[in-house]
């Protein structure tokens, strides 16, 4: 059977990120981004090897972008596209794994939308457009939450009245599941262990950040909760704050719920702490020049990350390794060394040179000799979505 081609689509409310993946190759055959959809300057950018192109789509929506994109994809795939994998943020309690899209699955994704009001409706725009353009092609939804459906109840329940859980789904779901799953499988391969018989801590550190405890290939705890705001300090998200902060800001400053939501999601995290940037690379440069806010933001980021990893270790029977991934995890020796320095009780320590070397796609072990394994593992959520899609084509 010739190697198969899968198009992976990740839709935002006004954007579509895409990658065409051939199962035999590690690089993307074609990739790109359609952005500002629905506006006058809607545009589609794509890259195929060294070749790049852009196409204006004035007032184009998701369907218009996909209508332009799919012939490019068919061409890059040599005429045979075998399926489409859609990233969907929230699968609620309904989806414990990827699902072939049919009317029932679409209805379930729509029913879960109140839990992810920004994300699921955007995914549905892409799903419905792709299905209407290519009704004969198998299409699969892959959920960020599905990997975490194996959390035990003591890890996913909040200590709030039970009816909020039973009637309104108020519980912890966790996100970044596709990435935590991918890197834990890669880590087991690198370490020569069976994924079904190994225990990992994983830190996905991008613009959004989360930790995860993975035992025998299953997520047992994770730092994000009902929404992706819980847990770690992120680019612009606060992570954990006192739940009474909402009431305090409303009473003391007269803030509305919308203002509080926007502050916690868009103005906080690294940006809020540093008053400078949400971007770790910029903060590291500013810290080198003595910027006080940038220095503090990095300290808080690493301490809170270490604290979360220590908490996640409660879910492990033993530690086979700590995994760093995501833009920051894969590229910041500073963040890795500061974080690990707080984890002496787990006996973690880094080899300075291996840590410094592991950047820009170079992964592998970075622990000091005789200490528990610490691995840098570049994530590849698109590839995992393609693998999940392929698995459902049979
Ligand atoms: P997203 O969650 O949007 O996919 P990424 O995984 O690409 O984000 O991560 C983005 C983060 O990675 C940014 O904070 C960026 O500054 C950081 N990053 C990328 N390269 C470096 C680097 N060389 N040093 C420090 N941080 C980096």
Key features of this structure:
394 residues, 6-stranded mixed β-sheet, binds adenosine-5'-diphosphate, Nucleotidyltransferase, domain 5, alpha/beta, 8-stranded mixed β-sheet
What does this protein look like?
It is a single chain. The protein has 394 residues and is α/β, with parallel strands linked by helices. It contains 15 helices and 14 strands. The chain has helices at 62-76, 103-112, 120-133, 153-156, 162-168, 177-191, 245-253, 257-266, 269-274, 280-288, 292-312, 326-331, 333-341, 352-357, 381-392; strands at 5-11, 16-22, 28-35, 43-48, 51-56, 83-88, 99-100, 139-143, 199-205, 209-215, 218-222, 321-325, 364-365, 374-376. The strands form two sheets. An eight-stranded mixed sheet has the order 5-4-3-2-1-6-8-7, with helices on both faces. A six-stranded mixed sheet has the order 11-10-9-12-14-13, with helices on both faces. It is globular, with a radius of gyration of 21 Å. Bound molecules: adenosine-5'-diphosphate (ADP). Residues 206-208, 235, 279-281, 284, 326-328, 331-332 line the site of adenosine-5'-diphosphate. Adenosine-5'-diphosphate binds at residues 206-208, 235, 279-281, 284, 326-328, 331-332.
